[in-house]
Amino acid sequence: MLFNSFEFLSFLPIVFLLYWFVFRRRWYQNLLVVVASYVFYGWWDWRFLLLIAFTSICSYSSGLLLEFYEGRRRCQQVVSATNIVLNIGILGIFKYYNFFVDNLDALFGLMGYHLDWVTINIILPVGISFYTFQALSYSIDVYLKKLPATHDIVEFFAYISFFPQLVAGPIERATNLLPQFQKSRQFDYAKAVDGMRQMLWGFLKKLVIADNCATVVNEYWSHYLDLPGVSLFLLGLLFTFQIYCDFSGYSDIAIGCARLFGFHLMRNFNFPYFSRSIPEFWRRWHISLMTWFRDYIYFPLGGSRCNKWKIIRNVYIVWCISGLWHGANWTFVCWGLFYATLLAIYNILGINTKYKHVVAYGKFLPSFKELLQIALTFFFVVIGWIIFRAESMTQALSYLKAMVSNRFMDLSMVYGKDCLVFSFLLLLVEWLQRDKQHALQFGSNKIFNFRFVRWGVYYLILLVICKYAGSSQTFIYFQF
Predict the structure, then answer these.
(1) In the Cβ-directed half-sphere of 15, how many Cα atoms lie within 13 Å?
(2) How far apart are CA 150 and CA 131, in angstroms?
(3) Are 40 and 61 in contact (CB under 8 A)?
(4) Cα atoms in the Cβ-side hemisphere of radius 13 Å centred on 32
(5) Which element (helix H / strand E) includes 361?
(6) Cβ count within 10 A of residue 431
(7) 298 near 318, Cβ under 8 Å?
């Protein structure tokens, strides 16, 4: 079920009313969440439910076994390793089997051998990477004694399948979300209203900017060799706004929706396009995934506690895995290596990338130095998204080459002007709100104490959505 569908607009109020006015006791609310989440997820294909149920049972059972074998370290290691292998194995079969078979066949083909391995025609379950990582975080944290194993299977299934963030994050940690299912929840009007504001902003980003940008990008990307360099750069710029508004828009809707039910999800985007460096960008983009890799891969490898060359090694390992997480294509791997190289350069040069405050803290405009830092970082990000969007590395390299060699200053073929205008207006609003949790968090701004001002903002956004919404597009990160 898509957030941007009439089915969801009917589904959400029904679940909300049942949750707060019929199933008032915690256990029954958790059960309702499980049922609603399975309806939400099964709307695409009921067969996907078998997979998420199996993943949930494996991780739930691993927690109980880890508790049962308390004090027997070897047994706990076997249990934890078995659960990790099961979950990663399922993910690998559905997402990477054909990729590795094809590449092994091509590799042996260079040596004159042909492998008769069979590829399989299989549908990639929506959001499998997200809920698999969420399930893994539970069993790893129980093994590391960061939280006790849960005995209530309903609350555990609710944690894995919670529908607002099920298919595209944020990737929640068991230490944050699971305890929220274990205690009673009271309806908080102020938090619910703020959640609806965040949802409204998310819908604006998705429907008006991401979907319209997608239409232009999809139309012209296929014949990029015919376009002048400046048009190719602007096309990359449009995809940069598309993927941000699409993914962060989903996160805004998910986080806001969860607040309607009394849950607090972790922040997933922190206005990343105002970053002053690549390391800062990745502390602000897809925060739930980046912190997952940091805690469960980077730190166990030694993190930043070893010498500089091992730190760089760790960065390359993490970013290679991050690229593969995004998809079974060499473009994603090279995209990860592109960022690993940039991060390594920052590390080698010893550039300070840890800032105490948001950019231009306490000021309206950034300093000239900050402006240059933001512009350079944003340029690298655009190049990275071009690699990410390309269908192959051959296309990515050809696109980048054409961008600097095809009549660069020819302005006769500039597309998506309306999309660029909306994108820059969005950046302006987010710049003004860059110290807030989301762009429509009014906070202590006195002007928004007046009801007619608040509702004027709401109606203006709804009017813009109704008038300028693009053709419906699937959320980009559903494929991951």
Answers:
(1) 25
(2) 18
(3) no
(4) 19
(5) none
(6) 18
(7) yes
- What span, in angstroms and rounded, lies between the C-alpha atoms of 243 and 96? 23
Q: How many C-beta atoms surround the C-beta of residue 28 within 10 A?
A: 14
Closest CA to 127 of 138, 137, 135: 135
d(CA 134, CA 127): 11
The phi-psi region of residue 445 (left if phi > 0; otherwise alpha if psi is between -120 and 50; otherwise beta) is beta
Distance of alpha carbon 266 from alpha carbon 174, whole angstroms: 12
How many CB atoms neighbour CB 276 within 10 A?
20
In angstroms, the CA 40 to CA 168 distance is 13
**Tens of pLDDT, residues 222-234:** 888 888 888 899 9
pTM exceeds 0.85, yes or no = yes
Q: Do residues 211 and 469 lie in contact, with contact meaning Cβ atoms separated by under 8 Å?
A: yes
Contact by Cβ (8 Å): 221, 389:
yes
Q: How far apart are CA 24 and CA 42, in angstroms?
A: 25
d(CA 399, CA 221): 9
Residue with tokens 């319209």: 212
Show which residues are catalytic: 326
Q: How buried is residue 362: exposed, middle or buried, by Cβ count under 10 Å (0-12/13-18/19+)?
A: exposed
Q: Please name which of 130, 141, 119, 122 lies closest in space to residue 55, comparing C-alpha atoms.
A: 130
At residue 119 the predicted structure's pLDDT band, cuts being 50, 70 and 90, is: low
Dihedral of the CA atoms 143, 146, 147, 148 (nearest 10)? Answer: 40
Q: Which SS3 state, helix, strand or coil, does residue 36 take?
A: helix
Contact 125, 358 (CB under 8 A): no
The pLDDT tens digits for 160-205 are 999 999 988 799 999 999 999 999 999 999 999 999 999 999 999 9
Tokens standing for 340? 């690993």
> Could you tell me which of 71, 69, 67 has the C-alpha nearest to residue 138?
67
Task: Give the C-alpha separation, 402 to 249, whole Å.
Answer: 31
d(CA 58, CA 85): 11
Confidence of residue 450 (pLDDT cuts 50, 70, 90): confident
User: Is-cis flag, bond preceding 148, omega within 30?
Assistant: no
Of 135, 45, 60, give the one whose Cα is nearest residue 90.
135
